[in-house]
Amino acid sequence: MGLKFIESKNLDLEIKRDNLYFEERLDTSSDWIEKRTGIKTRFFTELDTEEMTKKLVKNFKSDIENLDLIICASFSTKRRMPSLSSIARETIGANENVLCLDINLACAGFSAALILAEKYLEKGRKALIFACEKISDYMDFSDRSTAILFGDGAAGVIVEKNEKLFISDTKSLNHENTLNLYEGETITMEGKKVYRFAVEEVPKSLKKLMCESDLKPDEIDKIILHQANYRIINSVLKNLEIDEDKSFSNLDVYGNTSAATIPIVIAENFEKIKDGEILLMSGFGAGLSVVSILMEC
Ligand code: ACO
């Protein structure tokens, strides 16, 4: 049993910052940032996560009659309750019986939410799955090792349960304080450790799914990886022997928006993901977590 993407939307944000912005303020250079990460620009917003959520979900045009579930993936919302998913339900006027919940699995949150939806929904029923991250509230803009990486972002999909192929693989490893955020503080990260974890664990996870479904690299039509670093993306593609042109990426424009990277990629490439295509997806990050999906679109 699987999921079909019915609609996908991305929220446009108002403040665009290029690498020069950081070059002028920190001991870094545009060239270093682009060469080591692939990032050229990122967006920030003055909106809070509640306002971002309202603005995002108002963009959806789909019929919400069969909606049974709303999940928001976020680690960066300041308002602990009500959940952003409850605010989304109220905003779109969905049925009061819709189950609304927020989850936090950092950058792997969106793919985790898709797995929950696939398990929860009955055939023909729908879910709104979105991510809303205001990472700028938790960034130390004086720390060059993290400030250059992140952006704010929100995007989501409406999915409908069907009977197509959908398999997943999840892994949670010891975090060893590699990626942390405490209340009232800013994100700290040991970038090299996260990098190593990603290039080792993401291919393993995706190979497991390809093996389970007996699909070879040339039978994979599209691949969407969490947008953290283009060197991670290229290394995973090389390891899997999947052509670069099957990989959607917009890291250069948006930077790392945590749970929002995958739905932003989906929203921007929605028309290019065709019915019947085999899509690989993997979110990875704090946890340390890897959450991968192989699905027929
Ligand atoms: N500008 C210039 N120099 C820098 C910068 C910077 N912004 N940041 C680090 N450096 C320096 C370091 O100090 C170091 O200098 P040294 O050799 O004199 O000690 C050198 O550059 C190399 O530093 P590394 O940390 O080894 O740089 P690396 O090539 O590993 O790149 C990066 C750092 C981009 C952070 C990389 O490790 C990375 O992308 N890691 C993965 C991050 C990630 O995937 N996060 C996802 C999860 S996020 C989430 O879950 C919320």
TrEMBL record:
Keywords: Multifunctional enzyme
Recorded coiled-coil stretches: none
Domain Beta-ketoacyl-[acyl-carrier-protein] synthase III N-terminal: residue ranges: 101-164
Residue span(s) of domain Beta-ketoacyl-[acyl-carrier-protein] synthase III C-terminal: 212-296
Key word Membrane present: no
Residues annotated as signal peptide: none
One Pfam family per UniProt: ACP_syn_III_C
Pathway terms, separated by semicolons: Lipid metabolism
Stored CDD domains: KAS_III (cd00830)
UniProt keyword annotation of Repeat present: no
Protein's UniProt name: Ketoacyl-ACP synthase III
